[in-house]
Amino acid sequence: ERYLAKDSTENLSSVLIGTSQNIVNVRTVIEKVGRRFDCVHIEGETGTGKEVVANLLREKSGTPDPFIVINCSTIPEMLADSHLFGNEKGAFTDAKEATPGYVGKANGGVLFLDELEDMSPAIQGKLLRLLETHAYHKVGGNEERYSQFKLITASNIPLMELKERQALRADLFYRLDRLVIRIAPLRERREDIPL
Length: 195
Known about the structure:
Elements: H1 9-15, H2 21-33, E1 39-43, H3 50-61, E2 67-71, H4 80-85, H5 101-105, E3 110-114, H6 121-133, E4 135-136, E5 145-146, E6 150-155, H7 159-164, H8 170-176, E7 180-182
Helix pairs in contact: 2-3
């Protein structure tokens, strides 16, 4: 696993390669907000390096592990609550033991939700409540639990377009749209190709 020295632009340059204005801007934002962000959204087409940027943000944040990475497209909708928020033993047929869920595991660290465009509206509503209150319930549980974490989200489609398509709740859009890092594809920054 790779760790960056604190406040080292040189190390950022060796991981996030390029001299285009877009990449310079991305590195600058990481430097400026790395230690202070609560919630950041990363936009970019597949293969532009969203996970690299998420890793750099996490490293710059100084937040200790855990770094919980979730690809929203791989969570079956029927099991999304259990995967994200955990479950109590016996909450459903296959719940042979209690599980903490990704949100519980992320407490004190960073939660990275990749491919946000594939998250169902029902889960989006629960995510919004979690961001506002840090409170959640496990599936089959009555006890209110709390998880404090930094949130990084990413999508292949711009947030505004997701909102316009009604694939992203408007209230969640306004929560995530406060700090957005856009990574341009190589065809828009051809000067970076030789590097």
